[in-house]
Request: fold
Amino acid sequence: MTTTPSEAPAPPTTAPAATLPDGSPRTHYLNAAYGLKSWLLTRDHKRIALLYLFSVTVFFALGGLMAVLIRMELVTPQGDLFQPDTYNRLFTMHGVIMVFFFLIPSIPAVLGNFLIPLMIGAKDLAFPRINLFSWYLYTVGGLFTLWALLHGGVDTGWTFYTPLSTNYVTTAVVTVGLGVFITGFSSILTGLNFVVTIHRMRAPGMTWFRLPLFVWGHYATSLIMILGTPVVAITILLVAVEHVFHVGIFDPKLGGDPVLFQHLFWFYSHPAVYIMVLPAMAVVSELVATFAHKPIFGYKFVAFASIGIAVLGFFVWGHHMFVAGQSIYAGVVFSVLSMLVAVPSAIKVFNWTATLYKGSISWDTPMLYALGFIGLFTIGGLTGVMLATLGIDAHVHDTYFVIAHFHYIMVGGAIMGYLGGLHFWWPKITGRMYPVFWSKLSAIVVFVGFNVTFFPQFILGYLGMPRRYHSYPPEFQVLNVMSSAGATVLGLGYLMPLVYFLWSLRYGPKAPSNPWGATGLEWQTTSPPPVLNFETPPIVTAPPYTYPAGAPIPGVDRV
Amino acid sequence: MSEGHGSGGHGARADLAHHFDSYEQQKDTATLGMWTFLVTEILFFGGLFAAYGVYRASFPAAFRAGSHELDIALGGFNTVVLIASSLTMALAVRGGQTGKGKLAAALLGLTMVLGTVFLVVKGFEYHHKFVEHHVPGPTFHFEGPEANHVQMFFVLYFALTSLHALHMVIGILLVGYVAKRAWSGAYTPRNYNFLEGTGLYWHFVDLVWIFLFPLLYLIGRH
Amino acid sequence: MIPSSPLLPDQASDVARSVDHLMLFALSGLVFFSALIATLVLVFMVKYRRKSSDQVGIDIYETNPKSHVLELVWSVIPLSLLLVLFGWGTKVFFEQNRPPAGAAQYWVTGRQWMWKIQHPDGRREINELHVPVGRAVQLKMISEDVIHDFFVPAFRIHVDVLPSRYTTYWFKANRTGTFHLFCGQYCGVEHSKMVGRIVVMEPRAYEAWLAGEKTGPSAAGVASGDELFVAKSCNTCHRPDSAARAPILNGIFGTQVSFNDGTKAVVNDDYIRESILNPAVKVVSGYQPVMPTFKGQISEEELIQLVNYVKSLKAASLAAPEAGQ
Reply:
């Protein structure tokens, strides 16, 4: 049939409906436009998520390299691999890079950006251009930090305590401070975007209590990003001003109070750890529900627990300062509040476990990561409770016990949540499946390597080995060697996904819309999704995680 | 760049972004976005206010002495100027809302003028401080036993007012931009979101000054 | 030789034993709950393994009225245990931070990257502290530069050492031995080298040490408190006879004074130190702010000698100052 001039072609639809012979979509967000400009000037939240994926991976590699060097030095008691000055810069930059440029952005900026509009049935985030601007802010902040790194970095510890950082070092405090300051605004704008999106862009029928727990978790995270980050931003500015002009803000010789810095710093930096862990918990909720094929036990409790953690998390910062010279009564207040914030986390762990009861459980790779999270977060969280106990903290403050605690949460918790989420949503994001055997193997390697690395550090800490020590008494060597050996295994475990994920982009089998038989709106669209996410905007009529008993789950053609 | 966007059907609704379903949704989103941003600004200034509170409680006499060195007449004048500028801003937003673009543009221009007056007066005050050696740093000099603590007052004075002034500069630039847009009729009752957002921002910056003025200029003056 | 121990450091004080008991309680809770979760998870993973690809799980939450009770139970039980832990921890913390009356008063000055320790009798040590067993020891500490931290694992206590004011560390060793002293707050390049030893000795050995040559180098050149009081001309105004120009210092330590602005304070170590460095900030009522500042002209160690000296001035006399306490 030929078209005559009077038959105008129908206006193009906003998303292609055609599929290829193998069932995958013909046009989707990845191939809708090509070229560097289409990526660097994109407003599509999905592409921005991938820009972040690239950036955070680079920083993770850098931070990880520093960790390797640190562990190599600590194999022997003497400081014989690096000068003390170099070692101090290594652990400082490891902390700065991992905290500000990997852990805080990772899940929200990669998975949150990609998934939140899909999960709520929207076409994009509320402010797409601000989303892109966030990525540029992150990148500029990162470049400042890289520039500082190339010029020797900073040696103050990532905590920048005064007056050391303001009056006693000559390293690139201002540059790194500016880098963190700029990246902080990336975080603030991302949080702002998420909050407004979740409030205003939900599809018809998507009420608050029909939202996936992933969205609740990111909402809580965004509250912290919005409220906490500005305080550390202004604090870093003050440190930079003091470092350059020595006007006395934190200098006791001029009437300033160095402990005031600690209050201002930890007011953000404690809630910041919840920015790191709440998204991971949000991922775990999705993984447990999907791989048990049933709703999360106590959905509302889990949702409110997320908000509870975010709110309570703002009131406990003083537990970093129990021995800092503040009054012991202040310590008492912060200790009891810190105990309270443990309760919502406990509720979540119990609820996830209860979800498994009478579930229909599959042992896919994402589930392995979720289980790893549950176990390691429990241990890490309970050691946090030990640190909140005044009498114990007075002994293990600033020792390897603290290091072990936060690595259990951040690495055993947050990073495993991130990897679990990447493995879960990889088919959706890329349209490809990855090799099952290698992915399960790497999950196990990561889990084993992690525990061998960090469990000995609990013992080291209680024995009294302080943190940030370049050399140490010889009786601590055996445990240090164990830890370094584990770090090698852990590093290997992290390299493996890099290899097979990249391999899958070219050679992995094409993924169906719903390879895991999950619920959630993101699984009702193609893998990869169209540019505007849905061919027809969805209308929601059911609660989340609705697995009708006995009915076949849509799209469960496993590859 | 906008792969798949902007094709077909949008010509008549160029002022409705592609990811929104209705003007109401777009407006509500913009408003919530600006309010959320202002909350972050409260926390941003909040850190400085907290430092101010701590040091003022520690050195009350020195802070009184430092406050006396500020020109209360100029500070008061600036307060009136800013409040007036908020009035012109509010009227401008009303103008945009009712489709009176040119009126709005004129009022926005007036807002810019008032904002600039504020900054000029501030500049004079800073110059005074410079001449009197009250700028913190190597040139600081103050007669009296608590010179260091008086310097702390001035550190906070300059930190707070310069951060505020930076926000004013950004505000004036924003107001200039929306004035140009308002003049060319970009704002309609259906979509004056950017104008309203700018108005909210301006009111916030004004409000910060309302807090700064008594805290910095009026300590100990009964 | 510092003995090593596989899982616990040396326990050299009663407080250390309290801390270990507290830790073991917390640890047993940790082990219990971790094992519980791990076991449940593993059992469920195996028992409820998916049999066919579209088999769904059974939603027990909505159908079971006991669900809410369960949520309450596993909120309340952990909260109660946490509060017990909190209470016990607070009790131990108070023990760790409240020195008993009559503890021997030592002084510690920390600086990059060494510890300078002064005995009550004026004797000084660098990076080492010799004490007799069974004696309560209180350390008043200050830093000359950045924040440090005095950490003795064997006593299970950290206390930060600040550059702006004195902080207090105390212990009572209940066994002899040599124990690590670490700086526990990152303080710059040689932080790892800011370490030392606490040497706890039997009374006889301690007497011998006191009588013999000082072990280890001692810092030279710091005058005693009474010498400084004269050298810095404090005695020209602070005299017990003419009260016109300056408050009388005899017997003033521990009393409450009122200031010109109406506030009050108790005369303690920090107050004396502040008064020498910033005399015009708090002026005792009835006096003029004529005392010059000694900031920049006096070191932390000299300040310690003067604080000690003022403390020793008893109400009745201006005779030779008592040593120590």
About this structure: Chain C has two domains: 1-44+99-220, 225-312.
